[in-house]
């Protein structure tokens, strides 16, 4: 069933949109079923779970960390994660820069922006994200690849679309500013918009997403 759902989903996605199969709380066997159907990009929310699975599964899997990363877990995940989608604070940015410098590695990151209505969601405000990206050269071991956001938890498609459009507009503004100041490095890397999950990815497609993060629609309900 996982392979069938995955294939059906991929057939609906434009070729330029990448699919992150969100495997949190799902077993290695379930991941391998998706792997057998050709999926190589997976996302986990918890650092410990990502490390456990990444160390046990094929090395050609590309792992994205989607959830909040505590600074004391950075060194655990660095050997395994290819993209951190949840850079959500200056404190974390500084700690990542230090750890990556010590490890002599450049880490690709997405800046998480708080676009939804829920106050409990993390991330930078749009203005804070702008300020961070204007100073991206302060973090030479971080490669800023774009923005990530989660829409409001609602059935109101109009509200969800407005949230995604806010993220898309902010992405455009950051690129426009980089173009005006001749920031070729940021223009080259800052291309991704990660928005859209199992319930709202079709709306995200209409707002220009480049990454969709889908779990339940592939793996079914979580195994808590």
Q: Rg, please?
A: 17 Å
The N- to C-terminal Cα distance equals 19 Å
* CATH architecture term: Alpha-Beta Barrel
What is the percent of helical residues? 40-55%
Physical arrangement of strands within the biggest beta sheet:
7-6-5-4-3-2-1-8
Largest sheet: 8 strands, parallel
| Fourth-level CATH superfamily | Alanine racemase
CATH class: Alpha Beta
Q: What share of the residues does DSSP label as strand, in percent?
A: 15-25%
- Overall geometry comes to globular
Task: State mean pLDDT (0 to 100 scale).
Answer: 95
Order of helices and strands: HEHEHEHEHEHEHHEHEH
Condensed summary:
The chain has 224 residues and is of the alpha/beta class. The protein contains 10 helices and 8 strands. The chain has a single domain (2-219), classed as TIM Barrel, CATH 3.20.20.
What does this structure look like?
The protein is of the alpha/beta class. The protein has one domain: TIM Barrel, CATH 3.20.20. The protein has helices at 2-12, 28-36, 47-56, 74-77, 90-103, 126-134, 157-180, 184-189, 201-206, 216-219; strands spanning 18-22, 41-44, 62-65, 81-87, 107-112, 142-148, 192-194, 211-214. Strands 7-6-5-4-3-2-1-8 form an eight-stranded parallel beta sheet. Strand 2, helix 3 (47-56) and strand 3 (62-65) form a beta-alpha-beta unit. The model has no long low-confidence stretch (mean pLDDT 95).
Please give the structural blueprint.
Blueprint: H1 2-12, E1 18-22, H2 28-36, E2 41-44, H3 47-56, E3 62-65, H4 74-77, E4 81-87, H5 90-103, E5 107-112, H6 126-134, E6 142-148, H7 157-180, H8 184-189, E7 192-194, H9 201-206, E8 211-214, H10 216-219
Parallel strand pairs: 1-2, 1-8, 2-3, 3-4, 4-5, 5-6, 6-7
């Amino acid at each position: 069933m996982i392979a069938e759902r995955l294939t059906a989903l991929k057939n609906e996605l434009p070729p330029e949109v990448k699919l992150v199969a969100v495997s949190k709380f799902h077993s290695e066997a379930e991941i391998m079923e998706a792997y057998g159907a050709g999926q190589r990009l997976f996302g986990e929310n918890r650092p410990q779970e990502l490390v456990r699975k990444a160390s046990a599964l094929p090395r050609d899997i590309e792992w994205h960390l989607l959830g909040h990363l505590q600074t004391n877990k950075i060194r655990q995940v660095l050997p395994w994660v290819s993209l951190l989608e949840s850079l959500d604070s200056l404190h974390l940015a500084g700690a990542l820069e230090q750890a990556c410098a010590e490890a002599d590695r450049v880490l690709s990151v997405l800046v998480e922006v708080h676009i939804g209505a829920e106050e409990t969601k993390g991330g930078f405000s749009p203005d804070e994200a702008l300020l961070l990206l204007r100073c991206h050269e302060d973090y030479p071991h971080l490669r800023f690849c774009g923005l990530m956001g989660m829409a409001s938890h609602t059935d109101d498609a109009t509200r969800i679309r407005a949230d995604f459009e806010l993220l898309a507009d902010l992405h455009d503004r950051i690129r426009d500013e980089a173009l005006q100041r001749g920031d070729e490095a940021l223009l080259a890397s800052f291309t991704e918009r990660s928005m859209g999950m199992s319930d709202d990815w079709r709306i995200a497609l209409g707002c220009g997403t480049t990454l969709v993060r889908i779990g339940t629609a592939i793996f079914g309900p979580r195994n808590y």
